[in-house]
Write a structure and sequence with these properties.
Layout (H helix, E strand, L loop, with lengths): L1 H10 L3 H12 L4 H9 L4 H40 L18 H14 L4 E2 L5 E3 H4 L26 E3 L4 H10 L4 E10 L11 E11 L4 H16 L5 E8 L2 E10 L16 E10 L1 H6 L8 E8 H8 L7 H4 L2 H4 L2
Helix pairs in contact: 1-4, 2-4, 3-4, 5-10
Bound molecules: phenylalanine (PHE).
Phenylalanine (PHE) binds next to strand 8 and strand 9.
Main location: cytoplasm
Subcellular location: Cytoplasm
Subunit structure: Tetramer of two alpha and two beta subunits.
């Protein structure tokens, strides 16, 4: 009987069959119990022997079941372990996290450079009164320079418009502050340009204004060369080329030397060795007068740059549209 049980036990490996087997041998109607029943029919001597044997058998059987139970439990434990096993050596999956756009990053970089030189950051509305956007900046309605910046007007009388540059912030700041002052004005600006590789009807500018006594072109050179070196590297130098803006006199276009893109293709400035990054000049006396500053006492310089253009050059971005497409591959640069 014990041998048979051993065979049967070997074949099973789940609790249900274990229980079935157990009741077959040790249960109420099990083999041991039925052997016990037979005892009654034997005489005393035989009963003693037989009883002893049955008890031994019972002990052996119980032992077998105990052993088997241990094996089953161990098996279950191993299975559970396998299911909940964690390989701590597998590299973790990389999570995507948000990134600041190149435009915001460039604006912050420029702000940081000027704040470090004592400038404050000033902001103003994107919907402007044309007086702030043009008239106060020496650009009355008849002035041909108004056409330099093709404007989105918001009213038929051309009184309200989307600002074409952040220069109106400078007018607002001068009207509400006394000189001397040094500010930069970052922000969104609008012009009727078709979206193409280098233009967008909405883009960003950082303009700057510095008002003090005895301000000269030497100040422009010093501040803007510092800006260029901080943005594009220490080897970069700047070139002032004469230009025209109604609100500055004299006016310049400011180039940086193409050293900054050496080894990076430099496609954009193949020929001359210089590339334009901003406009600048000494504040026109008429602008100072329109905010009631005395031009015989106060002078100033102003400058303005397109943020997309700076980012395009600095990060070697092939075209303006990339900034607005939200293409993940681009954003991850
Ligand atoms: N406001 C000019 C523009 O939008 C830039 C500029 C600002 C030029 C200040 C000279 C001085 O193009």
């Amino acid at each position: 009987i014990a041998k048979e049980l051993k065979n049967e036990l070997e074949k099973i490996d789940d609790y249900q069959s274990f229980q079935n087997l157990k009741s077959k041998y040790l249960g109420k109607n099990g083999i041991i119990k039925s052997l016990m029943k037979n005892l009654k029919e034997l005489d005393e001597e035989q009963r003693k022997n037989f009883g002893k044997n049955i008890n031994e058998l019972k002990n052996i059987i119980e032992e077998f079941f105990e052993e088997k139970l241990i094996i089953l439990k161990e098996k279950e434990r191993l299975l559970k372990e396998k299911e909940s096993w964690i390989d701590v050596t597998i590299p973790g999956s990389k999570r995507k996290i948000g990134k600041i756009s190149l435009i915001s990053k460039t604006i912050r970089d420029i702000e940081e450079i000027f704040v470090g030189m004592g400038f404050s950051v000033a902001e103003g509305p994107e919907i402007e009164n044309s007086w702030y956007n043009f008239d106060a900046l020496n650009t009355p309605e008849w002035h041909p320079a108004r056409e330099m910046q093709d404007t989105f007007y918001l009213s038929n009388d051309k009184k309200y418009l989307l600002r074409t540059h952040t220069s109106p912030v400078q007018i607002r700041t001068m009207l509400s502050n006394k000189p001397p002052l040094a500010i930069i004005s970052p922000g969104r600006v609008y012009r009727k340009d078709e979206l193409d590789a280098t233009h967008s009807p909405v883009f960003h500018q950082v303009e700057g204004l510095f008002i003090d006594k005895n301000v000269s072109i030497a100040h422009i050179k010093m501040y803007l060369e510092y800006l260029a070196k901080k943005l594009f590297g220490d080897k970069v130098t700047i070139l002032l080329r004469p230009s025209y803006f109604p609100f500055t006199e004299p006016s310049f276009e400011v180039d940086i030397s193409c050293i900054f893109c050496e080894g990076k293709g430099c496609n954009i400035c193949k020929n001359s060795g210089w590339i334009e990054i901003l406009g600048a000049g000494l504040v026109h006396p008429n602008v100072l007068k329109s905010v009631h500053y005395d031009p015989d006492v106060w002078q100033g310089f102003a400058f303005g740059m397109g943020v997309e253009r700076i980012a395009l050059l600095k990060y070697n971005v092939p075209e303006m549209r990339e900034f607005y497409k939200n293409d993940i591959r681009f954003i991850e640069i």
